[in-house]
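Q: I have 521 residues here and want to know how they pack in 3D. Can you give me a structure?
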Amino acid sequence: MVVSVEVSDAVVVVRARTRSGVPAACTGCGELSEWVHSRYVRHLADTAIGGRPVRINLSVRRLYCENPACPKVTFAEQVPGLTVRYQRRTPLLQHLVEAVGVVLAGRGGARMLRILNIVLSRCTVLAQLMRVPLPEPVTPRVLGVDDFALYGDTYGTLLVDATTRLPVTLWKGRDAEQLSRWLREHPGVEIACRDGSLTYRQGIAAGAPDAVQVSDRFHLWQGLSRRVQEVAAAHRSCLPAALPDPEPAGSEPTDEAATGPGPADTAAGRHAQRLFEAVHALTDAGRTYSVVARELGLDRRTVRKYARARTWHEVMRRAPRRPSALDPYLDYLQQRWDEGEHSAKTLHQELLGKGYPGHCQRVKMALAPLRRGLPLDEPRERPPSPREAARWIITAPHRHSLQSGQRLRRLLDHCPELHRTHDLVRQFAAMLGALDATPLPGWLDQLTTSGLPPLAGIATALREDQHAVSQGITSPYSSGVNEGRITDVKLQKRIMAGRAGVPLLRHRVVLIAHLRRRYAD
């Protein structure tokens, strides 16, 4: 091959010519031929050199095929490593375009290629990406199945090889028939890891009846945690017991004097009480939540919240006053008030001299209770929320802080139902820690007879899937790899602004995982 190079400020032009007299293989039958028909010039783009685009003007021969049985009369010779049929990019540049498309998709890939002095539109980058063939599918021995949100209420299904940790495929929808059809078309799955979904349970049972189903430990623990939160919400009135006892004072003030006006004395309290009574008056008469919502002009979820509450106090959340920079000076304010100084502006000037950095308006707000004959509104601790109490219960004892451990002990001593819930949670945690499912049947019986409806409900669900739950406790396999790949799917969706169709998303998710594995190795 004869080569000459021309360099300008805009582009590097390489002129090349294949040698004559060298036989070339026919692209139809593969037989060698030296019978030249003509020559023509191919214009090839290559990777940039020194920041300049490269164009190769390659003169190649067109030859006659000397095989009478070949359907081709003439053919163009190909230069290995430089030309590909029907392509105006070198293999090196084509590989770079495909890799950038896999990593950055269309618009981002086009911008990156422009930095590399390769001008392509985002549509061209995506078209080149979709031309890349997916790896040959290999049926995994251990399969992970999980769903992910495509957009809105539309979900998809992702299959992962739990052994190699590589995605196998994904599709739109999460129904049992699609999964069972894929399993029948790809026999050989021995273990299937999934969450507690009834859909996937039925799909695996129909498509691979001999496969061992493993219910994921994370989802088991997550489902139990939600039920614990429901138990804590049902016993919301016990949650204030977690707070430490107030410090004894010289004279025991009444509740109203200690905390200021009660919730019923506020506009919010009166509104909550009226709304509670109106909702219960209609629901006790047999009206549905939707009918009550229309009659009262409320959201259905608001009606449900008030209807499920036993007292109006449960829906009346009085936010405690947060600590502020004025708290260290409350005693001084009380002293000066008792001495007869009632001007907020004067008191603010005095506090500035003592180092108070706040505004006069905060001092005026702090003096408001004193003007009504009430004590200063001091910061107070709020009772834990049901979610916070549930987090204390499900957290391992050795991971509690000193404060949360003390609050949990006070709460459990006060509420026998939460104490029973805590014992059952710790029993399940012991099973997971020891990888021993032997106590599982007895534990499920305890849930059923606990007298706690949320726990009894999850016992019924776990008993229907008991074999998979036992495998989830004892098996070394889990759906952790599925969750990691779903995080990757969400990342790719965000890179493409959520507008990717399922075929493009499948291409990127599968190819980028193999690309990372190739360069990591």
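Q: Anything worth noting?
A: The longest helix spans residues 91-115. The longest strand covers residues 36-49.
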